[in-house]
C-alpha cells in the first residue's frame, strides 16, 4: 500500500483521514490518489507542502539551471500528428517549431521514444 508523501497529510481534518475505533480515533496519512498528483501524493495540497519543504533541495540535487536554455533550429524538432482532410486518418510528422519544416514519420517511429530525427 502506498501512502501520501505529504509531510502534513495526517494533520488535515477530513473524514477519510479519521481512522480507528470509537474513543481512540486518530487522523492518519491517506493512501496515494490515482488522480495523478505525481504518483506520490493524495492531493495538490500535500504535493505543495512537500515541495515547500523539499523543493530547493530536490532542484539542487537533480540540477539547478545556471543559465537559460535556448530553443534553436537544431533542437526544435517535435513529433506530432495531424489528420487528413476527412479527419479519418492520422499522419505522423516531425515538425520544427521554428522553421515549420515537416518530415514524415511512420506510426512505429512516432511511438518509439528512442527514435530521433535522422540527419540529412
Shape: elongated
Mean pLDDT: 91
Beta strand %: 15-25%
Q: Give the structural class.
A: alpha+beta
Given as residue ranges, the uncertain stretches (5+ residues, pLDDT < 50) are: none
Helix-strand topology string: EEHEEEH
| Helix count, DSSP H or I runs of 4 or more residues | 2
- Strand order across the biggest sheet? 3-4-5
For the secondary structure, the number of strands is: 5
| Rg for CA atoms | 23 Å
Q: Report the major sheet.
A: 3 strands, antiparallel
State the share of residues found in helices, binned by percent: 10-25%
Number of discrete domains: 2
What is the terminal separation in angstroms?
50 Å
Concise structural overview:
The protein is of the alpha+beta class. It is built from 2 helices and 5 strands, in the order ββαβββα. 10% of the residues are buried.
What would you note in describing this structure?
With 120 residues, this protein is α+β, with helices and mostly antiparallel strands. Helices cover 20% and strands 18% of the residues. The protein has two helices and five strands, in the order ββαβββα. The protein has helices at residues 44-62, 107-111, and strands spanning 18-19, 26-27, 77-83, 90-96, 102-105. It has a three-stranded antiparallel β-sheet. A two-stranded antiparallel ribbon has the order 1-2. A hairpin with a 6-residue loop joins strand 1 (18-19) and strand 2 (26-27). The mean pLDDT is 91.
Amino acid at each position: 500500500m502506498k501512502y501520501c508523501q505529504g509531510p502534513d497529510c495526517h494533520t488535515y481534518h477530513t473524514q477519510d483521514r479519521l481512522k480507528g475505533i470509537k474513543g481512540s480515533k486518530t487522523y492518519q496519512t491517506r493512501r496515494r490518489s490515482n488522480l495523478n498528483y505525481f504518483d506520490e501524493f493524495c492531493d495538490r495540497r500535500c504535493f505543495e507542502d512537500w515541495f515547500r519543504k523539499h523543493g530547493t533541495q530536490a532542484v539542487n540535487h537533480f540540477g539547478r539551471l545556471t543559465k537559460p536554455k535556448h530553443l534553436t533550429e537544431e533542437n526544435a524538432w517535435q513529433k506530432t500528428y495531424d489528420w487528413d482532410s476527412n479527419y479519418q486518418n492520422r499522419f505522423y510528422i516531425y515538425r520544427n517549431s521554428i522553421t515549420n519544416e515537416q518530415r514524415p514519420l511512420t506510426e512505429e517511429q512516432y511511438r518509439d521514444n528512442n527514435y530521433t530525427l535522422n540527419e540529412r
